[in-house]
Amino acid sequence: MDVKIPEKLYFKIGEVAELTGVKAHVLRYWESEFGAFRPVKSSSNQRLYRRKDIELVLLLKDLLYAQGFTIAGAKKRLRSTSAAPAKPLTKDDQVSAERRLLADIREELQRLRDSLGSS
């Protein structure tokens, strides 16, 4: 379960799904089931996962898929090894996250434009 998590502050749900091998709808389901798993949302309601969220996804994946825990068993295991709950994002954090999302979108649009120009 050695997944190399890129050095970024925030990840979109599709990136997390690709990194972890867990489908987006499963990630959303896990959010509803596991209280410790609450990615922040931007003002545009985009889920923003942090490194610790991805690490938790990987832990849940291991507990549920590799070790055969049930949802209830995984919840119990998480409670027994409970970490501190995530701090809510400040307004500055939200602005930074929005800027990062916009920068990612700008980079993707630039790549698309460049690839269309070379065709």
Describe this structure in words.
- The structure is a single chain.
- The protein has 119 residues and is mainly α.
- It has a domain at 13-87: Multidrug-efflux Transporter Regulator, Chain: A, Domain 2 (Orthogonal Bundle).
- The protein is built from five helices and two strands, in the order H-H-E-E-H-H-H.
- It has helices at residues 13-20, 24-33, 51-66, 71-80, 91-117; strands spanning 40-41, 47-48.
- The chain has a two-stranded antiparallel sheet with strand order 1-2.
- Strand 1 (40-41) and strand 2 (47-48) form a beta hairpin.
- The longest helix has 27 residues, at 91-117.
- The radius of gyration is 16 Å and the shape is globular.
- The model has no long low-confidence stretch (mean pLDDT 85).
Question: How is this structure best summarized?
Answer:
The chain is mainly alpha-helical and 119 residues long. The chain is built from 5 helices and 2 strands.
* Helical fraction: 55-70%
Radius of gyration, in Å, reads: 16 Å
At CATH level 2, the architecture of the domain at 13-87 is: Orthogonal Bundle
Number of helical regions? 5
Counting DSSP E segments of at least 2 residues, the number of strands comes to 2
H and E order: HHEEHHH
Largest sheet: 2 strands, antiparallel
On the 0 to 100 scale, the average pLDDT is 85
Indicate the structural class: mainly alpha
Strand-residue proportion = under 5%
List the helices and strands and how they pair.
Layout: H1 13-20, H2 24-33, E1 40-41, E2 47-48, H3 51-66, H4 71-80, H5 91-117
Antiparallel strand pairs: 1-2
